[in-house]
Amino acid sequence: MDKVVASAAEAVADIEDGASLAVGGFGLSGVPDVLIRALHAHGPGDLSVVSNNCGVDGGGLGILLAAGRISRVTGSYIGDNKEFARRYLGGELELELTPQGTLAERLRAGGCGIPAFFTPAGVGTQAADGGLPWRYAEDGSVAVASPPKETRAYGGRPYVLEHGITTDFALVRAARGDRHGNLVFARAARNFNPLAAMAGRITVAEVEELVDPGELDPDQIHLPGVFVQRVLALTPAQAADKGIERRTVRTR
Prior knowledge:
The protein is α/β, with parallel strands linked by helices. It has one domain (about 10-115, about 165-240): Glutaconate Coenzyme A-transferase (3-Layer(aba) Sandwich), CATH 3.40.1080.10. Helices cover about 20% and strands about 30% of the residues. A hairpin with a 2-residue loop joins strand 8 and strand 9. The chain is globular, with a radius of gyration of 19 Å. The protein starts with 7 loop residues before the first helix and ends in a 12-residue tail after the last helix.
């Protein structure tokens, strides 16, 4: 039952070329930075990543992106990541854009063993009708476009079919965790972390504070340990190292 690993390198050692990853975080909040850096050092490529966004330039998943390790992204937000946009528009990266709420439910569904579900989000748009550019060619034309999805009417309202997502691995970050893998997330850092953890067949969690089993109030646990296979305890310096995506201050 003790799922604690000795190092970040050990935690990601079996992630190989071509693996699929669900990664928690939103912007720079709740991003498993230590595991991402260990994966970068480990060296696998041709990775398929499922995450709300793909980090920022020089941070989070942006480190793997800049190194050319990611070949496909399923996400809902490109944001200010210029390298992400450059690779996508230049035909170096395949991108499946999906509505944010739909992405969250696809991860949750995959983790719960639900193969597909119908949602009203995206009806009447290219998200349902097809034609979204997944990959561009070097000349700027669309090399791969999204296919149309099945739609049905329920109660006189149209819905589109979306499939649940499962991945080979998941990387997440939690504020507290015990040796059995039970996790507690802090405020906004909860974001996509529990959902990504559910979708991974092997889920690795880096935790800012590691406690012994029984110390976490069962009613306060956000993700039960059944979804987590490996736990990495961060050092105090690693736990405190949190980036700010956009610093805004007012004039005094």
